[in-house]
Amino acid sequence: MGQVNYQAIDVDNHYYEPLDAFTRHLDKRFRRRGVQMFSDGRHTQAIIGDRVNRFIPNPTFDPIILPGCLDLLFRGEIPEGVNPSSLMKVEKLQLRPEYQRREARVAVLDSQGLATIVMFPTFGCGVEEALKDDIEATMASLHAFNRWLDEDWGFDRPDRRVLAVPMISLADPQEAIREIDFVLARGARLVHVRPAPVPGIPKSRSLGHRSHDPVWARLAEAGVPVAFHLGDSGYLKIAAMWGGKETFEPFSVPPDPLDKILVDDRAIHDTMASLIVHGVFDRHPALRVASIENGSEWVHRLAKRLKKLANQHPRAFPNDPVDTLREHVWVSPYYEEDLVLLAEKIGVDRILFGSDWPHGEGLESPLSFTAELAGFTEPDTRKIMHDNALSFLGITMSSAA
Q1: Looking at the predicted structure, is the pLDDT value of residue 201 above 90?
Q2: In the predicted model, is pLDDT for residue 252 greater than 70?
Q3: Contacts from 72-80 at CB under 8 Å and sequence distance 24+?
Q4: pTM of the model
Q5: How wide is the angle at C-alpha 359 spanned by C-alphas 357 and 360, nearest 5°?
Q6: For residue range 330-362, what is the model confidence (pLDDT) as tens digits?
Q7: Residues 391-397: contacts with CB under 8 Å, at least 24 apart
Q8: Is the CB of residue 389 less than 8 Å from the CB of residue 353?
């Protein structure tokens, strides 16, 4: 399971949304333009916009995959002769109330050795891409979702055991500011922005476009960081150029292995590049961001490219862009990656522990992450498992020590 002599802070946990997460508080004007759930008595499907959405093929989450059962698949260590599909194990959702109820979730944290968890959506990570052509419905749907999230989980409560992360779309810059003020007034400690170009009319925009400066300025002023969590970033359009499927349906169709090579961590690489190259951190030096569940291989490629670009165009960078990366960006890597090499590139102070619990591709026991830290000293292990999260979040928690 893993042992440390303090309670850790896990920055990558998930809940499984109920069917009304996006509709309970949705303005009735958008009932047919946002997320809709339809059931024929046997199967439930999500309709988003005007089409069936298969980002999550079974939005009831019943049955649900067992935590960590796909570990060997994601490590690339499936024993010879073992069918990868045989690794999939499921159970009834009703057996795990901690997946949908805050009180039940808090009750398991002590047994897991965790002081605090940062919680992200499961179904919700596919909604903004599905609504990208309807900006009004996007903003209304995420506002409804954030109201549900605060109601059921709470952005931040006095015990500080669960930090639920509201989702923010920048598609309408003015509405984005209003939504940020809404969630900050309710205690949000960080916000979740999709790692993708910002949808817009007539065309999409960089996250570094100056129209988004009021958003970054508001967050920097409030000391509230931004998390970019893996989701549907629309990058399968690249795979479609090579004959692949354009829509992200991770569990409903056999994957084309080429998609993984073509897309992989390209979205988070480009997201961080847009922020650095287009000067967001130069204009907003107090802003902090993190990459969650996107791996860390992109860090090495981006640093190499930034260094070369700065040499070619020195006037474009008032500050060294690699230093900017190391100063402003925290990374929660995949546990199976070379974490010592990551520390050499970005600094041990910028590595965050995340287990992806209770997803099947995550860790069965969150603290087993410590088994991947054999190359680190005990003080550096504590930084990764605990201290760095406090630095990123900008909070103190004596109860977590």
Answers
A1: no
A2: no
A3: 73/361, 74/334, 74/336, 74/361, 75/336, 76/336
A4: 0.96
A5: 125
A6: 999 999 999 999 999 999 999 999 999 999 999
A7: 391/349, 392/11, 392/225, 392/288, 392/290, 392/330, 392/352, 393/118, 393/163, 393/189, 393/190, 393/225, 394/189, 394/223, 394/224, 394/225, 394/288, 395/160, 395/189, 397/115, 397/116, 397/160
A8: yes
